[in-house]
Amino acid sequence: MGRDADFRSSPRPEELDEWARIATDPSATEEDRNAAWSNLQPLIERWARHVAGRFRGPVRRQLLDDSLSTIFERLSQYRVGSRKLAAWCKRVLLNFGVDLWRKADRQGTLALAGLASEPVDPRPSPEAAALGVDEQRALREDRRRAMDDLANAQWTKTQVDYRAVLWVKFRLAQAAVVAEGVTGDQDDLAELSQSQFVAWSLHWRDDENQWRLRDDWPTLERIWQALSEDLDREPFFVTDVQFCRILSKLLGCRLNSATWQQWVKRGKGQGKDILGCERWNRLFGDLLPDRRPPGGGRGGGNDARTDE
User: How high does pLDDT run on average in the chain?
Assistant: First the structure.
């Protein structure tokens, strides 16, 4: 190999691809294969810590424990030359974590709703990381109960269904959260696409799929289908501006981002009134924060003041 990785700076994508090629090349010498794998190991462990931060308790611990063997077993399936090894490894590890969660939650709900509040925070607190399966299920059920309370509450009657606005915005914001940590090829071992993963993270009930932003607009189910193509390719999130363009182009709904942001603000205000600020902030504050950093963000709340 000639040299080991210098981890004071991130290796170039070409270097990562070369190490992956040599580590899986049966014609390479054992010394070269071992050296290539040694270069990759600390990087894989770093990527695993990033992905594991989205899970809790035993799922998180097992993902960290088995990250190296999981990547080693699948590395020969990586497309050398794509220069996206980091993103590929993160996606493989994320899918592995999802599988672990399914097994851990086998006695609970295994529909796509099963991960309604898992993963939640890319940087969980020590207290959150210590949660076990029972606590995770309780948190998931608490969040779904809050959504049910929102769904069944009396909302100010207008031409816009602000419940539907929130349901869509929750998912757009969740897609941005996931995209922050895991991007790259969706073709390689991707058991769940980005749109499927987000739908898993924030489940809509059957009747909610039939809600409409306006009475004469397509259903939320149809809107999500229209968004999926953009969500399932890099950068794996959709901005407010892009969302409005997709609605206009694919579904014929005339909507600009300023109006959409105003709808989100109004929906958020009513949602807070219904749930109370403490409950709202605990369950949905990470998706629609009260304040955004300078320059805005990918998928959080927006306090633009524009009328419909």
Answer: 76
